[in-house]
Amino acid sequence: MCAAACLTAVPASAQFQKPEDAVKYRKAAFTVMAAHFGRVGAMAQGKAPWDAQAAAANMAVVMSVHQLPFTAFGAGTDSGDTRALPEVWSKAADFKAAADKMADAMGKLDAAVKTGSFDNTKAAFGPVGGSCKACHDDFRKK
């Protein structure tokens, strides 16, 4: 799995001509992911009415983009307009493990949403939110 992740990261990092391009890319990808994840979260938390079709449509977007930002944490992208902490690079294995944990939980949430069940979605939402928070706590400036 690591080899596959590393191979995917090479072409992605090669697409950025300047480090600031990578920073902009990952911030944009996180923004899109958060917007659509937030819509599912609002339903799962009872803050918005449950709509199985809307949840599925939003999760489709999340699943399309949830791994994109992690391809843009290459060398030289640790400065400038970023909230990433130095630990992203100094503890790269821990950062990758956090990203993998989020991706795993996101896959389970996607499967739950696809059942059309509010209860399944609500149960699967918490672990994703927890993995996001843990990564923010350890790898993102407040």
Descriptive notes:
This protein has a single domain, classed as Four Helix Bundle (Hemerythrin (Met), subunit A), CATH 1.20.120. Helix 2 runs antiparallel to helix 6 and helix 3 packs antiparallel against helix 5. It is elongated. With 142 residues, the chain is an all-alpha fold. GO terms for molecular function: electron transfer activity; heme binding; iron ion binding. This is Cytochrome c.
Keywords:
142 residues, 6 helices, Four Helix Bundle (Hemerythrin (Met), subunit A), single chain, mainly alpha, disordered N terminus
Which homologous superfamily in CATH is the superfamily? Answer: Cytochrome c/b562
Q: Which stretches are low in confidence, meaning pLDDT under 50 for 5 or more residues running?
A: 1-12
Proportion of residues in helical segments: over 70%
Rg from Cα: 16 Å
Average pLDDT, all residues: 90
What is the ordering of alpha helices and beta strands? HHHHHH
User: CATH first level: which class?
Assistant: Mainly Alpha
Overall morphology: elongated
Task: Work out the helix count.
Answer: 6
Strand content: under 5%
Helix-strand category: mainly alpha
- How many angstroms separate the termini? 31 Å
Number of strands: 0
